[in-house]
Amino acid sequence: GAVNQADPDIDAKEEKGTRLSLAGDLSDRLAVFASIRWTEITGPRNEGLDEVDDDFEFSDDRNLSFNPQHNIDTTSGSFQLEYSLDFATLTSLTSYTDSDTAAKTDGDLSNELAVEIPSPENAETFTQELRITSTTDGALEWLGGFYYLKRDFFRDFELNVFFLAFPPCGPPTEFNVNTIPVPPFSYT
Q1: DSSP 28
Q2: pLDDT digit string, tens, across residues 103-152
Q3: How many angstroms separate the CA atoms of 84 and 91, rounded?
Q4: How many CA atoms lie within 13 A of 94 on its CB side?
Q5: What is the CB-side half-sphere exposure of residue 65 using CA atoms within 13 A?
Q6: Which of 2, 98, 109, 140 is the most buried (most CB within 10 A)?
Q7: Are 34 and 78 in contact (CB under 8 A)?
């Protein structure tokens, strides 16, 4: 068949990101806290072998045709205002997160290129919180507020099945997806 070997660094993970935060008092009663963050993670897609005995040694051998990957790109930010009243603190907290994920899984879990499963996702989340909290000393402390959450989520799922064809002289010694005589079947 069309045999390929997964990369020896199949469990490698790379993460990078940056964050910028600001905090301070705008007046004797008003304070601000703001933060924006971006992260990018590239790593394996949970195709490791299970540990079957008690020696806690995990094999690096994988019977896969490619390295299943999980790539996540996230941008998020938050903005908080706190206003001090004589008897309480009024807080407004706003946040937004946008996360894009691209995952690709070796669906047949073998070193034959037969089934691959790409599954992109996008999630956008917006939150708004308004809160008032008592600050006076006494037997009764209180807290009240409102919280709003809006989340949009999209996930696509594709199943690519490759039909392998052998030439009359036997299996090919080198495999290229573009030379498959029958196009892949795709289900979305």
Answers
A1: S
A2: 877 766 666 666 777 788 899 999 999 999 999 888 899 999 999 999 99
A3: 9
A4: 4
A5: 21
A6: 2
A7: yes
Is-contact 122 153, C-beta < 8 A?
yes
- Closest C-alpha to 111, from 33, 1, 30: 1
Q: What does the pLDDT read at residue 84? A: 96
Statement: residue 158 has pLDDT above 60: yes
Query: In sequence order, what are the beta bridge partners of 46?
Result: none
C-beta of residue 40 within 8 angstroms of C-beta of residue 13: no
Specify the DSSP element, H or E, that contains 86: none
For residue 91, give the nearest of 99, 82, 100 by alpha carbon.
82
Beta strands 69-84 and 115-134 are unpaired
Task: Give dist(CA 124, CA 77) in Å, integer.
Answer: 12
171 φ, ψ (degrees, to nearest 5):
-65, 150
pTM of the model: 0.67
Q: Which residue has the tokens 């996702």?
A: 121
Q: How far apart are CA 37 and CA 75, in angstroms?
A: 6
Pull the structure tokens for residue 23. 């905090």
